[in-house]
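REQUEST FORM: STRUCTURE PREDICTION
Request ID: SP-0412
Submitted by: Lab K.M.
Chain count: 1
Length (residues): 669
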Amino acid sequence: MYLQTFRWRSRGGYRQTRSRYLRRYSWLLVLVLNGCASPTGTRTGATLHEQASLHYRQGKYSDAERLYKDALALDENSLGADHPDVATTLNNLALLYKTQGRYTEAKPLYKRALAISEKKLGAGDPSIATNVSNLAVLYQSQGKYAEAEPLLKRALAIDEKAFGKDHPSVALDLNNLAEQYRIQARYAEAEPAYKRALAILEKESGRDQLNVATVLNNIATLNQELAKYDEAEATYKRTLAILESHLGNDHPRVAMGINNLAEHYRAQSRYSDAEPRFKSALSILEAKLGPDHPTVATVLNNYAALHQDLGRQSEAEPFYKRALAINQKTLGSDHPKVGLDLGILAGLHREQAHYNEAERLHQRALAILQAKLGSEHPSVANSLNNIAVLRRDLGQFGEVEPLYRRALQIYEKKLGVDHPSGANTLNNLAGFYQDRGRTAEAEKLYKRAITIFEKKFGSKHPALVGSFIKLSELYRNQDNFNLSETFAKRAVDLSQNNRRSAAAAINNLAATYASQKKFSAAEPLYKQALAMRESLLGPEHPNVAATLNNLAVLYDSQGKHAEAEKLYKRALAIDEKALGSEHPSVGMDLNNLAILYDTQKKYNDAEKLYKRALAIWEKSVGPEHLYIAANLESYATLLRMTNRGSEGAKLLARAKAIRAKYSVQGTAN
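STATUS: Completed
RESULT:
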């Protein structure tokens, strides 16, 4: 998920808006231990099975499928169709299909394998637990959590009865059940299950065994989600040390341990720590697995996200495209991972204001995810949320609310009414209502999102920062400065461990002071936010331009026009270089600079910039966007001041028509 910052200056006002765009899958490797027995049938069948498994690990799925099918045919002929070794081959062929996103083909194979094992071995045989767990993980992949959970609990019960409560197999079952709880944000249930699994494995195998590393990795992921960053980092490092001690420094699992630590650093905006680790992980995987392995695509996506975070969109795009190409080649063009890749790439194009391409990719992604996962999968909800953000950018307001509502309905049905993913969409819908002037509804949704975050994470989790900033903005726009300042300060307090969030929170607090004309309090905060963003993101990032713009407004309000002009021009130069000369943010910079010239009665200069901003917006966001109305109103004022009132009246009439349509689209159903 990322936050896109836009700036807008109306006469005498400050505004900072944010849209939460959900980037699906964090690409933190979560190892779910399913385990499959080796076939013990004919030598030829066993050999084929071993070769198939090797091809599977290498990402050569078509070769693996052929060999698994040959092994299955030999085992059925020599051992009979209901032999336990046939069940093993069916299980592993199903796992291959699951990896390829061929869920409808995997399910009957898993079920047949389970039926054979139950018939031949009895419903309480320990090997049944493996079959049951694998079917449960398939259901998880499809978002069928209600079907998965009883199977995971059944596997746990089988192993506890067969081996006792402290057996390693029980630990693996606990790990898988904990993953189910983590996915559903049932953290209070996930944490003790993980800890019990870890305690069993450490007692049985020692603290430094590979199976211990697997559970540690998942505990680190849980700690990351709960913002226990120090604990997460220490656990990721311990995981990596175990992997390196057993496998060496250049094993693919070691590479993924490095990737996970790097992703942890990226999530905290520790980019200088993250980047060399992404490079190291990528180098190991390419050398060991080849440049076209799906695991390579995982790291490429993460590395691309780092470039995107740093405003290096031109560097991010080829990595995203290469990851997409790998997954299309190895998994097929309609695999769910391909759908997720397309959605991520669409987000990058949206950020660059390549709206037609973003729309095309989003629709393709949505079609794949709905076809493969069903219309009520959480990944489909993410896609709908992101399309809603795009529609909002384009001013297609009539389509925004239904998309957010549908996404929210899916989250609540599949993940529960108090899942953080639903809270993120509540925040987005609240932001849409806020922009539409439906402030009472917006306030209600922000508070509902906050309640969910506090219930899941506690009252001091950074997930609350975005909601606090938006509530602060809402109250600021209502001139309720006491509440605005309260939430702005809470956002600052909660963002201490993430410099990027901290810069946004400090910028917002500065805006609250500036709106009260507390310029001496606002100016040092804007400068602090500017310094943080320049240090973190570089001096030519669009977020740097956002703070420059806000500081320029502050100077303009104080009559420091020369200082304001300098900052406006620098913001404009940054956005033109980073985003292109026809990006909406460039239009905002031009419009703001035009207002400055207008205020100084530099009407010729102002008019040129109003016209250029208008042309950019008409092309990028369409002729009926609210940006257009605001521009026309300012431009009409200039025309009136230069004795061209009749021309100005035409512009005002057009602006009025846009706002009327805006008002109708924003009316609650």
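NOTES: The chain has a mean pLDDT of 89.
Reviewed by: T.R.
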